[in-house]
Write a structure and sequence with these properties.
By secondary structure, the protein is an alpha/beta fold. The protein is 36% helix and 15% strand. The chain starts with a strand and ends with a strand.
Length: 368
C-alpha cells in the first residue's frame, strides 16, 4: 500500500519505492497550485515505483494527467527517473537547474561504454588494484561494438530553475535556492508561506520558530549524511593527467566546499520545517546543518592526520572509517567511497592543508 502523508496547506508526500536499495523510497512531494498539482521529484524508473506514484497522486485527490509540472531537485535516478513517464502521461513541463540539465544531456548523448571507460581511467589514476578494475574491464569488453540504449533515457528538462527565482506557480510562493554539493545543480525549494502549524491566526512562524517550509531534496536529511563525491565528468581530461596542486587550488571543482557553503545558506534561511526526499519531515534546519558541517570538519581533520605519509585516493579510502569494514563494502560502493575520499582531498588542497606529489603515478597526496 502506498504511503501518503498530508502535510497540510496543499502539500503532500508520496513514498515511491527504490528497488533493492537500503534507502527504501523517495519522498515525492505534491504541491497544489491554482494551475494544477506540481511534483517535486518523481522517483525511480521502475514499474512498481510508477504504480506507487500513480496510486499516491490519486490518494492526494488527483490523477497523473492532472499534473501541471515537475520540479527536480537534482538529476539522480531516484529523483528524476520517472520524469519522462510523467511527461508522457500528462504533458507536464520538467524544470531543473541548468548544471544538472547539462549532466542529463551528456548522459543521453553518451555512447555505450563511455562511462565505463571514464570510471576505469579514474580508478586507475586513483590507485585501485587490478582485482577491482577487472570487473569494469570485463563489462567494457561486453559492450564493445554495441550501440544499444536503455529503453527509457533520462528526460531532458524543458525549463531551467534559476537561483533565487520565485517559480511560476500561480497561488504559491516557491523560491529556488541553489545548493550545490551533492550534485552541481542541486536545488532546495523554499515555500515562502505561513506554516499550517502556526501558533495563531496570521502568525507566519512555524513550529520551530522559522518561516515557511523547505523541500530539501538530498541536501539536508534528518539522519543521513548525503554523499559528497566528485562531480563526475567523462569529458574531464585531468582524470588521467592531474594538474599541479596550484592548478587544483585555482581551477578544479570543490564539491565539498560547495556543500559546506550551501549548508551555511540553508542554516541562515532557517525554515520552520524541512521536507526532505528521504526519511521524514523535521524541524531545526540550522541545527542539522551545523551537525553536518561539524561532521565534515572532523572528517577533514582525520584525513589530514592520515596523510602524514603520501597516500593514493584508494589507499585513503581504505584507511577511512565507514559504516562497515572495508572488506564488507560492495564493489560499487567502493567506487563511491573513493569519490568521497577525493572530494575531501580536493577540499584539503583548496585550503592549503594538503598537496599532490608531482609526478606520482598513481597520484598521491600528503599533508602540508
Amino acid at each position: 500500500m502506498t504511503r501518503v502523508t498530508d502535510h497540510k496547506g496543499g502539500v503532500w508526500s508520496i513514498a515511491v519505492p527504490i528497488p533493492d536499495n537500503p534507502l527504501g523510497h523517495t519522498l515525492v512531494h505534491l504541491l497544489e497550485t491554482d494551475r494544477g498539482p506540481v511534483l517535486v521529484d518523481t522517483g525511480w524508473d521502475d514499474p512498481a515505483s510508477w504504480d506507487a506514484l500513480v496510486a499516491g497522486v490519486a490518494a492526494c485527490g488527483f490523477a497523473v494527467p492532472d499534473l501541471h509540472g515537475v520540479l527536480i531537485t537534482h538529476h539522480h535516478p531516484d529523483h528524476h527517473g520517472l520524469s519522462a513517464a510523467v511527461r508522457e502521461a500528462s504533458g507536464a513541463w520538467i524544470a531543473m537547474h541548468e548544471a544538472d540539465t547539462d549532466v542529463v544531456r551528456r548522459t543521453r548523448e553518451a555512447e555505450p561504454g563511455r562511462w565505463l571507460d571514464y570510471l576505469t581511467a579514474k580508478l586507475t589514476a586513483s590507485g585501485a588494484p587490478d582485482d577491482h578494475l577487472a570487473p569494469l574491464r570485463a563489462a567494457r569488453a561486453r559492450k564493445s561494438g554495441t550501440r544499444a540504449l536503455p529503453a527509457r533515457r533520462p528526460a531532458l528538462p524543458d525549463r531551467p530553475i534559476a537561483p533565487g527565482e520565485l517559480l511560476d506557480l500561480p497561488g504559491r510562493r516557491l523560491r529556488a535556492l541553489w545548493t550545490p554539493g551533492h550534485t552541481p545543480g542541486h536545488v532546495c525549494l523554499h515555500l515562502e508561506e505561513a506554516h499550517p502549524g502556526q501558533a495563531a491566526p496570521g502568525e507566519p512562524r512555524g513550529p520551530a520558530g522559522g518561516f515557511g517550509r523547505l523541500f530539501s531534496g538530498d541536501h539536508l536529511l534528518p539522519g543521513i549524511t548525503p554523499h559528497i563525491g566528485l562531480y563526475e565528468e567523462p569529458d574531464d581530461a585531468t582524470v588521467t593527467a592531474p594538474p599541479s596542486s596550484a592548478q587544483l587550488r585555482s581551477s578544479w571543482a570543490d564539491p565539498l566546499g560547495d556543500y559546506l557553503a550551501s549548508l551555511e545558506r540553508v542554516a541562515r534561511l532557517a525554515p520552520a520545517e524541512v521536507l526532505p526526499a528521504h526519511q521524514y519531515a523535521f524541524t531545526d534546519a540550522a541545527g542539522r546543518a551545523r551537525e553536518l558541517i561539524a561532521h565534515h570538519e572532523e572528517r577533514l581533520d582525520g584525513i589530514h592526520a592520515l596523510l602524514g605519509e603520501p597516500l593514493t585516493p584508494w589507499q585513503l579510502a581504505v584507511a577511512m572509517e565507514w559504516n562497515r569494514p572495508w572488506e564488507q563494502i560492495p564493489h560499487g560502493s567502493r567506487n563511491i567511497a573513493v569519490s568521497e575520499a577525493e572530494a575531501h582531498l580536493r577540499r584539503l588542497v583548496k585550503l592549503g592543508r594538503a598537496e599532490q606529489l608531482p609526478g606520482a603515478d598513481p597520484v598521491r597526496f600528503r599533508a602540508m
